[in-house]
């Protein structure tokens, strides 16, 4: 009972097993609008006001192109964005255009329309995309989604300037100024130096806080530490590589670092580190500027001392984790012509720039040339707080799970293998070899076809 | 009536009318909506999920029981099995115990004052679990737990409610017991009220004390309702999703995952729907046998009366 080459969909199952229950697709009725209707499912942005800006952009585009646009903003809280995508892809009905952040292009690669020509058009107009975009949305040589005009972010270090000066003797504004930086000074920002600072800050009552739990932030920051130590769970060729000296080195490092972190990190969610910083207890978190934005509103005295900057360098380099956002079109979409036009037109510089301002600098576009915006220069307080939020130096942008093939990396991410591996050692006191053995066993399970 | 029958005799309309007037026909027609619901919302999803669990990850090939055999080799899966059993048995035990004690206590209150107590005790059960669990999450919050704040007032060290395996399991069981005990309470209260007062009077005349009345009158009279509520609760507790999902997301280190949350992690979040379906179906045969045995015993007891 095989159906090689194509997925056994619910409809095929129904058709094959329930006589007389064949689904009758409702006929597509074109409205008075010459280019028809377009249903768009977008990610519900964290930053207040960003949705309204995106709604206006889409409706204006619809009015200009005689397309009747229907917009739904779907939250990622509780994985609702992913749940809705699963429901739509299986039912083969729903929105025409859909937000597919992070691993969703990989998860839904068989349900998304190839968009090679659209990406080529965007690149020809605006120049290349960041390297991680290929890794996340191009499979077997075919793009399955285009860069979203809003939502992409990176995980920078977000630190308290006053605590670092007073308790660790480090002036972060000197190392990472809001302007030209001295590479020699940046080179001193290593994981060893950070560990030393974390110890001093912990001693002063202001610990570094980052989750080691199932959430996305946890996989994000651990991914950059693992890569900085050269530790990969599965290599680019799909081979399990977790049993290595590099893995033992990163586990050893994290065992020491977690000694300077709150015990509760093993149950933290993606908002816990934000609260940790805003409460005034935290010296550093790893996050986009959402924590700073909330502090600016709720705890201005904290916000005035916050600085976004590069992550430390490890033996294998300096790696910044990103969360890329894409938009895709379902293969079963009803109005692919309008969808294709929307995907290209909303990748124009003016649209992305509008969204950069609406998101208060939260977004970091995937098109390299759009990163020359001054939105990060004008944010305040303190002056220059977001200058180093986009990558300015020698950081390599990755996604947690890199460099494993996306189909495997997505499972490493969603099943929190890195976090569990670390916690087995740092919280449960498991021997390195036992924890690595467990991880290897889990990873072997991801290889099944 | 006779004239109409004679007029219609020999016509197609008359046959149809006679058919529709048969009691068996009406019975079948009246059952159609229910049958449609059962077939559409129970039978079809069950067969479809069974079908899904027998496909490969890409859903392109029939692999029989391979997904189940694959799970048998996974350490994490067996941890989920152990946790689900622990969670269900401990939670049902305490729900039954608390429900039984609360039902007895309320039953001793004069009838006039019972209503408000019944109402108050039912509150946890009528609040949507996802919402009330959010309230519990605030109480157990990893860093700023309200309970720990109270403990600190009495110089008691903070408890890692959600960040250590033991306490995380304790927390999800406590919330499940809090949510589910009112169901046992209301069922046991109804059962207690159905026990004839004469039996207690006869026992009292025979000199039975309170404990003997409980053991030799109350419990035997409640055996069927206890069996059915325990069976129902075991099935529902094994299938619990929202409490773990909201409170711990299966953490720390997968130590609070249940079948439903682990199936969600594998099937929806990781995109491996067939494996997720296999996890969710794993307990089906066990629970089916349990249900068969308990319901057979209940039926035998009823027939013996």
Q: Can you offer a commentary on this structure?
A:
The complex is a heterodimer of chains A (449) and B (305). Chain A has 449 residues and is α/β, with parallel strands linked by helices. In chain A, the strands form 4 sheets. A 5-stranded mixed β-sheet of chain A has the order 2-1-3-12-6. Chain A has a 3-stranded mixed β-sheet with strand order 7-11-13, covered by helices on one side. Chain A has helices spanning 10-17, 50-64, 80-91, 104-107, 116-126, 131-137, 161-168, 172-175, 183-186, 191-203, 216-228, 245-258, 272-278, 290-298, 300-303, 336-345, 349-358, 375-378, 406-414, 417-426, 432-446, and strands at 37-43, 68-74, 97-99, 138-139, 142-143, 146-147, 153-154, 156-160, 284-287, 306-309, 319-323, 326-329, 396-398. Residues 1-6 and 13-33 of chain A have low confidence and may be disordered. Chain A is globular and about 65 Å long. With 305 residues, chain B is mainly alpha-helical. Chain B has helices spanning 2-8, 12-21, 23-52, 66-72, 75-108, 111-126, 129-140, 146-153, 165-193, 197-205, 210-238, 242-247, 259-269, 273-281, 284-304. The radius of gyration of chain B is 26 Å and the shape is globular. The chains are: A alpha/beta (449), B mainly alpha (305). Chains A and B meet through helix 1, helix 3, helix 13, helix 19 and helix 20 of A and helix 3 and helix 13 of B.
